[in-house]
Amino acid sequence: QVQLVESGGGLVQAGGSLRLSCVASGRTFSAYTMGWFRQSPGKEREFVAAISWSGGNTYYADSVKGRFTISRDNAKNTVYLQMNSLKPEDTAVYHCAFGPYRSFTRVVITTTRQYDYWGRGTQVTVSS
After folding, report:
1. Residues 26 and 119 sit within 8 Å (Cβ to Cβ)
2. DSSP 70-95
3. How does pLDDT run across 64-94, given as a tens digit for each residue?
4. Which pLDDT score is estimated for 27?
5. What SS3 class is residue 51?
6. How far apart are CA 73 and CA 1, in angstroms?
7. DSSP state at residue 106
8. Which 8-state DSSP code applies to residue 26?
9. E strand intervals along the chain
10. For 100, left (φ over 0), alpha (ψ -120 to 50), or beta?
11. Tell me: the pLDDT tens digits for 101-126?
12. Position 28 pLDDT exceeds 90
């Protein structure tokens, strides 16, 4: 069993920044891809970013590329999402996901069903 706890969400004006954190426990963190997804009311959960188990590879949704940065600290079992130049359309509940074992194929890391465990999420609200 894996537990994931996100933090760092909040209310920010457009153009501002937030840094989300997700602490994992219960399994060998450094062997798994980690992802961030987000969900707005009435919409399906969508992929935001993923990072490979070593941190050497990252992948982003087109909508956040160049504005968001995913990183991880395996010594702290923590994955981060630095969000800059935030837009009102970034408003959502952000979930971290504990993902595929040593896999970083694009079709895999962008698919929700490939992740075994999910955090409860942290709300990000961007005002215009």
Report:
1. no
2. EEEETTTTEEEEEE-S--GGG-EEEE
3. 999 999 999 999 999 999 999 999 999 999 9
4. 79
5. strand
6. 20
7. H
8. S
9. 3-7, 10-13, 18-25, 32-39, 46-51, 58-60, 68-73, 78-83, 92-101, 117-118, 122-127
10. beta
11. 888 999 989 999 999 999 999 999 99
12. no
Amino acid present at 3: Q
- Which residue has 């993923």 as its token pair? 50
Question: What are the tokens at 20?
Answer: 């989300």
Whole-number Å distance between alpha carbons of 19 and 27: 24
> 26 pLDDT band (50/70/90 cuts)?
confident
Residues β-bridged to residue 92: 124
Predicted pLDDT of residue 1: 87
